[in-house]
Amino acid sequence: MARYATTDLHGCLATFRHLVENVLALTRADDLYLLGDYVNKGPQSRETLDYLLHLQATGYRLHCLRGNHDQELLDAARGHANKLWLPPDERALTLRSFGVAQATALPARYLAWLEALPFEWELPDYVLVHAGYDFRQPRAEMHQDHHTMLNIKHFVYDSSKLGGRRLLHGHVPTPTATVQARVAARADAICLDAGCVYRHNPELRHLAAFNLDTQELLLVTNREALYPVVRR
Asked: Is residue 10 left, alpha or beta, with left meaning phi > 0 and alpha meaning psi from -120 to 50?
């Protein structure tokens, strides 16, 4: 039995499937924590959700958090067109994967799944969240500030606010070498977003998985077919 965490799939289904099936060789006794952002930017948003739903339905222990892109897709589906923050090419890519012309036509089963996603997981030794926390806030308020938990990009980590537990998060595409260095240093807060979707960028373009027990970092280079993506 093993525990893994990964994040920011962004529709990169081929890369994620390779991680799950070949690199992790995930079993139904393992726990896989996903820290959000399953959709947008990459080529297969709907197909990625289908795969996650399939794994859960067939007994795999996937624990999925909500990311800012998941939230913004929900908001757009509710008619807030201004929430579709994506450039036109990326917006078209996401909507095409769902087979719809407008976000308001997104199938209900996907919206219900996204709507049920929690904002954080608290384990005995780790706290998992998509982006992070505003550690200047009182502890109770910090865990209720969902906008910050989905969107913050810079924070000063305070372990006392998390009961001394380590923090794993995503959201900010981070050079792979930096992720490796943080893991090697056993840092108290580690961003696992190695920018998988940015396939043009040699400093990024990796999907990172972290073994919560052995501290091992596993990396998969973007394996997707060609798709348009903004360079980062």
From this structure: left
Residue type, 17: R
Is 0.90 topped by the overall pTM? yes
What are the chain's domains?
3-118+173-221 (3.60.21.10)
b (16+ CB within 10 A) / e for 157-183: eeeebbeebbbbbbbebbebeebbebb
Handedness of CA 27, 31, 32, 34 (dihedral sign): positive
The Cα 201–Cα 89 span in angstroms is: 19
Show the DSSP H helices in the chain as ranges: 13-18, 45-57, 68-77, 88-98, 108-115, 139-142, 146-151, 176-184
Taking only the tens place, the pLDDT of each residue in 57-78 is 999 999 999 999 999 999 999 9
Report the alpha-carbon angle 17-27-216, nearest 5: 75
pLDDT tens digit sequence for 209-232 = 999 999 999 999 999 998 887 666
- In the predicted structure, residue 82 carries a pLDDT above the cut 80: no
